[in-house]
From TrEMBL:
Residues 48-74, 685-738 are annotated as: Disordered. This is ABC transporter G family member 7 isoform X1. Residues 693-708 have a biased composition (Acidic residues). SUPFAM superfamilies: P-loop containing nucleoside triphosphate hydrolases. It is found in: Membrane. Its main location: membrane. It comes from Raphanus sativus (Radish). Coiled coil: none annotated. Residues 79-325 form the ABC transporter domain. The keyword Membrane applies. GO terms for cellular component: membrane. It is a multi-pass membrane protein. GO terms for molecular function: ABC-type transporter activity; ATP binding; ATP hydrolysis activity. The chain crosses the membrane at residues 496-520, 532-556, 562-582.
């Protein structure tokens, strides 16, 4: 077997947890790296092939259109939902809270639908259900019927865009670069850079981002584009794949009135272009409300109104005696009407009675008018049982293409992060100056032995903590971006992790080198050039291992705050067993594995071997430490080599990277499945496909009837309004000056 520093390779890889465990870990790490960094990536089949198999699922909508190019016309998609019920169980109190209660509605292409209601009414929950983005939980129960173009829902049957409340981007990229990278990763069918640039320019013009195209996106540390421009950039990134349906979760959150109206005007224009646009919004201003074509009103998870927007809701509620005064924002009137007033016990009783009566009134109306089309069960056929053509397949050339694109993006993000890099550089130099001043020009006396050990220990701790805190402070936010892009099929996890690792090597190595260049001569450590090079090399490898550990912590916890709590706590354990405070020979048996897994211990051991080997100290007594080898023996480091410590740190680094990969795969977003309901209320699993019992032409004619009927005055209902609402007094909102 090949020698490795005086030992065989098998002996060298067994440094963690004994021979058997060490070999097993090394083999697993090597296998994982081969799988991650050499396997082919994933990609979707071209859209023109996938759409052939889904022409039936989309009800024949858009026949003859070719989706192979992003410039093609948007495929129209109509979404209908019926009896959507979502409940959340509480094991401690053994109670069930209903987030949605038998909600019914419809969204059509070319129309802008707004989901409105007070806080806690279920707006975001309904939007997530329709978009298939409701986070999975064993405590959730989701049931109902969801149709796409008259057929049972299949998110793979149409393209959708989901714009979240948080606008997450790589802060150091410009607006144009952000869209260009998104286009390169998603539009693989466009190979020409000129065509891709033209497509990006069209998006910039369409979304009103031309003026800020070359501006940095920015974040809390770097000033960039405005909040409204970030929201429109989110829309632009989602529009790259030409989605049929656009979902926007409260797109006006955090924006001023002007920016909010600009964003909503952009959504309205997208609806006019043929997209089906659905957004949730709390309480829009009057000019924003006028942009809506349809509106869904929710209160406490129940449906109060679903139909055309404008004056139709005011007419509908006016028939029950609830009149909107002149010069009052209709959205404010509707929000006050369907909200519960908790200011006093009397107001709670009267407002709840009013709201419940409105819910009951619309539920009776919607059952007879809004969805009169009967639904039946479709028998599964060979076509429905065969595998879908747009399933994920291997792409031989996609892995390396993704890697080089992500490497370019990661390098631009890392190299342009001036504020962070300046702070890290200043802290490295400042720490080196402080430590160098404390341990100024150490001699070779007996007391200098302890000083040298203390200096090497704090140097190892400082380097590891600096790399760890930087990573755990950034990676959780970046993980949210990666999860979003991976959910679109833009790239696989392997190219991303490898590109991030390589791109950060030059930047990550600079700070340990700066630290060592200042500290080494000030403390007068072993004054040879080769020893200085080994000192910097050990510190650099330790920095990379700490960064890899930070990636694992960031992949393990849900947010930055939790990562900042877990990371340093875990590092503290490794510091205690770092070789200086507790001797390895005195470590309890149940904790013997911790020093072997501690990157602090291996860095400290390597630094000590590099410093004390061949060093002679002044001595007066026979029991004094005369050579550096005797000092190493007291630390239980005798007989070790620097290359062994470097190899151990590399094994730890690979272990953390492999663990990060597994955690990112395991913790990728999972969404709640919808249990389909039949007419009799029984639930079916998601494998059953439903379709209208009528022919498609009859179904289209019948689905057009509700819109016309909703616009008709409700004379018959107005006659019974007094009976339904009992003693509830008419709700009149006093007009206030604006």
């Amino acid at each position: 077997m090949a020698p490795f520093g005086g030992k065989s390779i098998a002996d060298a890889v067994s440094g963690i947890g004994g021979n058997g465990v060490g070999r097993l870990l090394a083999a697993v790490a090597a296998a994982m790296l081969v799988r991650i960094f050499s396997g082919p990536g994933i990609a979707l089949l071209p859209e023109n092939e996938a759409d052939d198999d889904f022409s039936d699922a989309e009800g024949g909508a858009g026949d003859g259109d070719d989706d192979s190019s992003p410039e093609t016309k948007v495929r129209p998609v109509t979404i209908r939902w019926r009896n959507i019920t979502c409940s959340l169980s509480d094991k401690s109190s053994k109670s069930v809270r209903f987030l949605l209660k038998n909600v019914t509605g419809e969204a059509k292409p070319g129309r802008f639908l707004a989901i409105m209601g007070p806080s806690g009414s279920g707006k975001t929950t309904l939007l997530n259900v329709l978009a298939g983005q409701l986070s999975s939980s064993p405590r959730l129960r989701l049931s109902g019927l969801l149709e796409v173009n008259g057929r049972s829902s299949s998110r793979k049957a149409f393209k959708l865009a989901f714009v979240r409340q948080e606008d997450l981007f790589f802060s150091q990229l410009t607006v144009r670069e952000t869209l260009s990278f998104a286009a390169e990763l998603q539009l693989r069918e466009i190979s020409s850079p000129a065509e891709r640039d033209e497509y990006v320019n069209n998006l910039l013009f369409r979304l009103g981002l031309v003026s800020c195209a070359d501006s940095c996106v920015g974040d809390a540390k770097v000033r960039g584009i405005s909040g409204g421009e970030k929201k429109r950039l989110s829309l632009a990134c989602e529009l790259i794949a030409s989605p049929s349906v656009i979902f926007a979760d409260e797109p006006t959150t955090g924006l001023d009135a002007f920016q909010a109206e600009q964003v909503m005007e952009t959504l309205r224009k997208l609806a006019q272009d043929g997209h089906t646009v659905i957004c949730s919004i709390h309480q829009p201003r009057g000019s924003v409300y006028a942009k809506f074509d349809d509106v869904v009103l929710l209160t406490e998870g129940a449906l109060v109104y679903a139909g055309p927007a404008g004056t139709e809701p005011l007419t509908y509620f006016g028939n029950f005696g609830f009149l909107c005064p002149e010069h009052v924002n209709p959205a404010e009137f509707l929000a006050d009407l369907i909200s519960v007033d908790y200011s006093s016990s009397d107001s709670v009783y009267s407002s709840q009675k009013r709201v419940h009566a409105l819910v009951d009134a619309f539920s009776q109306r919607s059952s007879s008018i809004l969805y009169a089309t009967p639904l039946g069960v479709k028998q599964e056929t060979k076509n429905s049982m065969r595998p879908r053509r747009n399933a994920i397949v291997e792409r031989k050339d996609g892995w390396w293409r993704q890697f080089f694109l992500l490497l370019k993006r990661a390098w631009m993000q890392a190299s342009r992060d001036g504020p962070t890099n300046k702070v890290r550089a200043r802290m490295s130099v400042a720490s080196a100056l402080i430590f160098g001043s404390v341990f100024w020009r150490m001699g070779k006396s007996q007391t200098s032995i302890q000083d040298r050990m203390g200096l090497l220990q704090v140097a190892a701790i400082n380097t590891a903590m600096a790399a760890l805190t930087k990573t755990v402070g950034v990676f959780p936010k970046e993980r949210a971006i990666v999860d979003r892009e991976r959910s679109k099929g833009s790239y696989s996890l392997g190219p991303y992790l490898l590109s991030k690792t390589i791109a950060e090597i030059p930047i990550g190595a600079a700070f340990p080198l700066m630290f060592g260049a200042v500290l080494y001569p000030m403390a007068r450590l072993h004054p040879t050039l080769s020893r200085f090079g080994k000192f910097c090399g050990i510190m650099t490898v330790e920095s990379f291992a700490a960064s890899a550990m930070g990636l694992t912590v960031g992949a393990m916890v849900p947010n930055t705050e939790a990562a900042m709590a877990v990371g340093p706590s875990l590092m503290t354990v490794f510091i205690v067993f770092g070789g200086y405070y507790v001797n390895a020979d005195n470590t309890p048996i149940i904790f013997r594995w911790i020093p072997r897994a501690s990157l602090i211990r291996w860095a400290f051991q390597g630094l000590c071997i590099n410093e004390f080997s061949g060093l002679e100290f002044d001595h007066q007594n026979t029991f004094d430490v005369q050579t550096g080898e005797q000092a190493l023996e007291r630390l239980s480091f005798k007989g070790s080599r620097i290359r062994e410590t470097i190899a151990a740190q590399c094994r730890i680094l690979m272990f953390w990277y492999c663990t990060t990969y597994l955690l990112l795969e395991k913790n990728k977003p999972k969404y709640q499945k919808l249990e389909l309901l039949l007419d009799n209320g029984d639930s079916e699993n998601t494998g059953v496909q439903l379709e209208p019992a009528l022919d498609e032409e009859e179904a289209v004619d019948q689905t057009e009837e509700p819109e016309d009927e909703l616009k008709q005055p409700l004379d018959d209902q107005s006659q019974t309004s007094s009976e339904e609402f009992g003693e509830i007094r008419p709700f009149v909102l006093e007009a206030g000056s604006k």
